[in-house]
User: What shape does this take?
Amino acid sequence: MGQYRDLTLLRIAPDKTLVVACDSSAGVGEKPLDNVRTPTETVAAFSLRVPLLELLCYGATPLMVIDTLGNEMQPTGAAAIRGLKQELARAGYADLPINGSTEDNMVTQTTSVGVTVVAKSTSHRISDRVDQAEVYQIGVPYVGEALLAHFDEVVSYETVRQIKQCPGVVDLIPVGSQGIAHEVAELARTSRLEYDSKQLDRPVYHQSAGPSTVILALVSTSAASHFETLFPTATPVIHLQAVNY
Assistant: This one.
């Protein structure tokens, strides 16, 4: 058993590892006391988007989805399950099985959605070692009402797949509630690189990116120019370099 960032790893064979990712949402939906009014299908879809992107960036293949719904099956649970199926289709996993549970013993006043995705990986993931790298931002941090207003602008699964296959891309990481600066620190830690954190003092680097509306790409400096040509909307964030002792 091990941990890689927000993922739990369980090696079940010399060449096979189970990889588990999860996310949750509460207070967003169509219930009387929800803070943000949003269709239940959308809430569930974005809750699933987070672990799917974490696994895609890691390089694991999803096997199944487990939903933990803190609401009644009809109508909230059924709507959430529809949203999960819609998101699986968007991600290219329409045939993935779904299992889960609902709360039918209590009357609930807010929407509560939990999602776990179990995946498999055939190799232990280790990022390529580089001495010089650039971090690029793909997407814009959106959350709450801003996310709903820019629903069609969030980074697609296909874009993430294309970036992952691009030569020179060392690592990918989705950005969530802790913001870009936090995830840059994670990229630096796992790649054994350092950077000037003062360059990330701007508020935009610390605001929530909601359900992974931003992806960070760590690109070898030698391949940066080519990467920028292929992905002209990618925004440079910061330069990383090997730790000097």
Notes: The chain has a mean pLDDT of 91. The radius of gyration is 19 Å.
